[in-house]
Specification:
single chain, 117 residues, alpha+beta, Endonuclease, Chain A, 4-stranded mixed β-sheet, 4 helices, 4 strands, 39% helix, globular, Endonuclease_DUF559_bact, DUF559, Restrct_endonuc-II-like, DUF559 domain-containing protein
């Protein structure tokens, strides 16, 4: 089987960079914890591309993808796209976990044993 590069495609570099500079509030909040390896000392990347999809957060060691969903993901077309994308990632052996934005703010501090107040 040919070894095709599926990570960090060069043609998506500028778009990934723009997404990193413009994180949503929930992405920025979660990134504060993930970038300092507070989740079992695992290293995460943000706005990482796998194939032609850009995932919110990616842990290579665990083949783990974390996606944060805002209101736009309640749209049937967006849900269909999300399902297609998840199937693709899972077909490559990735575990995809999705959270609603609200869950990040409501539950993340207790997950990491922190009080955000």
């Amino acid at each position: 089987m040919p070894n095709h590069k599926i990570h960090s495609k060069k043609e998506l570099q500028d778009y990934r960079r723009a997404l990193r500079k413009n994180l949503t509030p929930s992405e920025a909040f979660l990134w504060k914890y993930l970038k300092s390896r507070q989740l079992s000392n695992r290293k995460f990347q943000r706005q990482h591309s796998i194939g032609y999809y850009i995932v919110d957060f990616y842990c290579a060691a665990e083949k783990l993808v974390i996606e944060l969903d805002g209101e736009v993901h309640n749209n049937p077309k967006a849900q269909e796209y999300d399902e297609k994308r998840t199937r693709y990632l899972e077909s490559l052996g990735y575990k995809v976990i999705r959270f609603e934005n609200k869950m990040v703010f409501d539950f993340l501090p207790s997950v990491f044993g922190r009080n955000t107040e």
